[in-house]
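note to self — DONT lose this again. spent like an hour looking for the file last time. sequence + predicted structure for the chain T wanted, 278 res
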Amino acid sequence: MNNGVEMPMLGYGVYQVDPADCERCVTDALEVGYRSIDTAQAYYNEEGVGKAIAKSGIAREDLFITTKIWISNAGEQKAADSIKRSLEKLDTDYIDLLLIHQPFSDYYGTYRAMEKAYADGLVHTIGVSNFLSDRLADICNFAEVTPAVDQVETHVFQQQKKLRRTLDKYGVAHMAWGQFAEGKNGYFTNPVLAAIGAKYGKSTAQVALRFLIQNGVIVIPKSTHMDRMRENLDVFDFTLDHDDMDAIAALDEGKSLFFDHHDGESIEGILAFGKQAA
């Protein structure tokens, strides 16, 4: 990343993992071989991540932990307090990567709290999530510390080509959420992905992950099943050729399959949740 910190290209995400099941899922992921875990205040499962890490016996320096500050904790003081709570829930002395979860409310105040935590060594890297080109350019030009990462919806049907130009301009790493699009658009039976998978003896999911990784996108696929966790991790023994990459690039529709951050009704839904979450 732009501050010299190294982050695994493939990690394990716990979005929508039941808090009651999170410890077990993260324990399984660590056993399979994952060393990067992505959580958030608004997932309500930071404690499960912390318990799994504590019981794993894996040295803390061999793990990479990401969490995110939710809208309800926006603002300099509230964000600072929430960082302390996240450290307690994760049972760790530092967070490897801390992100602003959504570009709403007083996100500049939030970012100032993150910059201070970074300076104090409580956080090793800071960044943003769901910042599209306009908001990303804004914060890159006016914050003291340039974000190291922007985590955004990214999959074969929404490849974020416009945003990628802004990311590359400011040296911000591209990180995906929703890399399987939650199965929308017939994702797991897509004929292009299936044909390429047959060529390499890989699943459509593995082909999709490999496409993102070869494009320099950090991925954090989620599964609650160990066999699928293993499958998602097994994407480093093949390389898609130029024709494969072009065929998958052509699947891009250039729009969200979930919500539009420039649409008022979509934003109001996020903000309504943000007033009560985390």
